[in-house]
Write a structure and sequence with these properties.
It contains two helices and four strands, in the order βαβαββ. By secondary structure, it is an alpha+beta fold. The longest helix is centred in the middle third of the chain and has 17 residues.
């Protein structure tokens, strides 16, 4: 799957770049080594959320991001994402993943050591 992803300027964010649950600006929650994205709080279906996951993984891999922090919520999207990430880990596409110990609706993915 090839995605055309535009370059993102850190000053160029809008309301869609905010977490709908906590209202924080997602791009400001990182030092650059971790990319944070919300794939579940804009009324996405499971298929839409998985498409966003693929887009974010492609971006992280192609832009040398070390970690990806996915906000997935606590429902069915969370379960499907974890299943897919298990497969990706077994295939060697990602190093590892784990549910955030402080927020069960967030999954931390290590792309490269």
């Amino acid at each position: 799957m090839i995605n055309s992803i535009p370059v993102f300027d850190i000053t160029d964010w809008n309301d869609k770049d905010r977490c709908l649950k906590c209202d924080d600006v997602l791009i400001l929650q990182t030092d650059g080594s971790t990319r944070t994205c919300d794939i579940a709080h804009d009324h996405e279906t499971v298929d839409q959320a998985l498409a966003k996951l693929h887009q974010q993984l492609n971006f992280a891999i192609n832009n040398y991001t070390q970690r990806l922090r996915l906000i997935v919520g606590g429902g069915r999207i969370n379960e499907e994402v974890q299943g897919l990430l298990y497969f990706y880990q077994q295939q060697g596409y990602i190093v590892s993943y784990a549910v955030d110990s402080r927020n069960a609706g967030t999954i931390n993915i290590i792309i490269r050591p």
